[in-house]
Amino acid sequence: MALLEVENLQTHFRTPSGINRAVDGVSFSVNAGETLAIVGESGCGKSVTAMSILRLIPEPPGKIAGSIRLNGRDLLNASAREMRAIRGNDISMIFQEPMTSLNPVLTIGRQLTETIRQHARLGAKAATDRAMEMLQLVGIPEPGRRLAEYRHQLSGGMRQRIMIAIALACDPKVLIADEPTTALDVTIQAQILDLMRDLKARTGAAVVLITHDLGVVAEVAERVMVMYAGRKVEEAGVGDLFRSARHPYTKGLLGAVPKLGASLAGADTRLVEIPGLVPSLKNRIAGCVFADRCASVTNVCRSVAPALELKAAGHLVACHHARREVAAA
Amino acid sequence: MTQPLLEVRNLKKHFPLRTTFFGGAQGVVHAVDGVSFSIAKGETLALVGESGCGKSTVGRAILRLFDITSGEVLIEGRRIDDLTAGQLRPLRRRVQVVFQDPFSSLNPRMRVRDILAEPIRNFGLAASDAELDKKIADLIEIVRLPGDSAGRWPHEFSGGQRQRIGIARALAAAPDLIICDEAVSALDVSVKAQIVNLLQDLQRQLGLALLFISHDLAIVEHMTHRVAVMYLGRIVEMGPKQAIFATPRHPYTKALLSAVPVPDPEAPRNRTILKGDVPSPINPPPGCHFHTRCPVAMARCRIETPVLRDHEPDHSVACHLYDAPTVGSVDG
């Protein structure tokens, strides 16, 4: 049994102009010590998926259906009180914007010890010691001084390290990182990715990494799941996905990103464009969600939604036209 | 030698910090600290660097969105930094800009038609209403917006389409140079590819020069001719794309390139991870600004500021490692 199992997750929002199906039937699982990347463009539902796991979606207007099991326990049936105990303790989250996710009027130390004392039931002294230890772990020099500082006194990279320290303070089993390096510069991003890799190896936590950056995916993920318009369209091991993507959307995404060094070898190359726009999630889409932008679209794509099928070992694809290579067991 | 379209000589822009209650100045932000480069007609120069390195300030200084502290900005050999607003006006037409955020850079109360008509009218580029309509229709077509866009409002468009409106607005003035200040950074991957392709097509069709300000090195490598790498207000390395990406010389350029995540899980990874953060531009470190994070810093780097010098023809570096080829020159 996987550590975290999400089955047929549906997160819908009631809006004045109709129901927005932000996540529409997504299933996946993550094992302990594994990094799963969820990739997709704005509005594909990747962040809503993460927020749903932690039940951070306001209900109403949101509504979560399906099942989310952590060690076999269904989180959707947990009470608000039980969820509070789970958040930060069993599952924690790193958000994209470290500037807005730290409280400006509380010291860094206060925010770190709050989490520790809430969950680990330690005294003030023990909690401060633990906070120091966490800051050292995430590579912050002079942790004693930093504990007394406020967020505006820290740089962007430092703030993100603090967020990671808070998230890891209670040794969570699952760490959800929503675009953890998107707001950072490349040299700082490299530091943070290194840190995350290192900490995962040390703590053995499962990591769900949400990102739009395929470079980051290739660096840290073991398995990748591609989302488009609220649905999962492909899932595979990271090597497999980059080598032999089968869904036309994934292929398009991979072609749309220039690779460093690629244009030096050859003459002028053109980036692959995916024509058109992401469909509105307010209308129920009968067929394949990608049909309107797909180059190899046929009639069946517009009427029947393709099921996720095993097209090769460990490689799931939701496309009527993806070739099957190995007979699925 | 042909005259460059744009030339920037020893540009400096210092922003004084707010004064204290008693009137004493608290300090000066050295946003741009002596930058020189030139752009030829039809050429793309990319200005790369991390946040706070001054790359956007350079773009804004060329647009004269503020007065510069010292230095010169020349368009076809004519100084524009000391012109009055009235003298500058006809020259403004020649340099246009596309901003990063397509949501805040379009007036929500103007229809696309009016957004595009404004520069055409301002610079008197259309003799009649019929000609104006024709120009607007041509612009909409050239940036590949839907044919009925003219009568619509900015909020009706997606991010990528809004960026096309921004590009059309820049093109409306028939410029020679467009400054793209992180023009594709806010866009999604697939849309980013569309806009990058569009900019390249426009450059070829119209012979535009681009100053492409960006932190995205993969995109830069894909579309630029020359690159200038900035760090804390100074250019540390500049040269043709080939030279910068294939044989970077400055330790900062090397570290920057090695930090870029490559979208290929099988690519070899040998990265130089820089320690620490970029120092504050209020009190930049003495000598070479990079010495606090440089893996190969020497005693000299802490005292003496390296000068940007030609290392090979066209490829210049500001680093003491490549200084003064005395007996047995240093390489590496």
Task: Please provide a brief summary of the model.
With 329 residues, chain A is of the alpha/beta class. In chain A, 33% of the residues lie in helices and 23% in strands.
Walk me through the topology:
The complex is a heterodimer of chains A (329) and B (332).
Chain A: E1 4-15, E2 18-30, E3 35-39, H1 46-53, E4 62-70, E5 73-74, H2 80-86, E6 91-94, H3 108-120, H4 124-137, H5 143-147, H6 156-168, E7 174-178, H7 186-203, E8 206-211, H8 214-220, E9 223-228, E10 231-237, H9 238-243, H10 248-256, H11 262-265, H12 299-303, E11 309-312, E12 315-317
Parallel strand pairs in A: 3-8, 3-9, 6-7, 7-8
Antiparallel strand pairs in A: 1-2, 1-4, 4-5, 9-10, 10-12, 11-12
Helix pairs in contact in A: 3-4, 4-6, 6-7
Chain B: E1 6-16, E2 28-39, E3 44-48, H1 55-62, E4 70-75, E5 78-79, H2 85-92, E6 95-98, H3 112-122, H4 129-142, H5 159-172, E7 177-181, H6 189-206, E8 209-214, H7 217-223, E9 226-231, E10 234-240, H8 241-246, H9 251-259, E11 309-312, E12 315-317
Parallel strand pairs in B: 3-8, 3-9, 6-7, 7-8
Antiparallel strand pairs in B: 1-2, 1-4, 4-5, 9-10, 10-12, 11-12
Helix pairs in contact in B: 3-4, 3-5, 4-5, 5-6
Strand order of the largest sheet of chain A: 6-7-8-3-9-10-12-11
- Can you give the mean pLDDT of chain B? 88
How many angstroms separate the termini of chain A? 19 Å
Largest sheet of chain B: 8 strands, mixed
Count of extended strands of chain A: 12
Relative strand content of chain B? 15-25%
pLDDT under 50 segments of chain A (min length 5)? none
H/E series of chain B: EEEHEEHEHHHEHEHEEHHEE
Spell out the CATH superfamily of one domain in chain A. P-loop containing nucleotide triphosphate hydrolases
Characterise the protein shown here.
- The complex is a heterodimer of chains A (329) and B (332).
- Chain A has 329 residues and is of the alpha/beta class.
- Chain A has a domain at 4-228: Rossmann fold.
- Helices cover 33% and strands 23% of the residues of chain A.
- In chain A, the strands form 2 sheets. In chain A, strands 6-7-8-3-9-10-12-11 form an 8-stranded mixed sheet, sandwiched between helices.
- In chain A, a hairpin with a 2-residue loop joins strand 4 and strand 5.
- The longest helix of chain A is centred in the middle third of the chain and has 18 residues, at 186-203.
- Chain A is globular and about 65 Å long.
- The model of chain A has no long low-confidence stretch (mean pLDDT 86).
- Chain B is α/β, with parallel strands linked by helices.
- Chain B has a domain at 105-174.
- Chain B has 9 helices and 12 strands.
- In chain B, the strands form 2 sheets. In chain B, strands 6-7-8-3-9-10-12-11 form an 8-stranded mixed sheet, sandwiched between helices. In chain B, strands 2-1-4-5 form a 4-stranded antiparallel sheet, with helices on one face.
- The relative contact order of chain B is 0.14.
- Classes of the chains: A alpha/beta (329), B alpha/beta (332).
- At the A-B interface, helix 6, helix 7, helix 8, helix 9 and helix 10 of A face helix 6, helix 7, helix 8 and helix 9 of B.
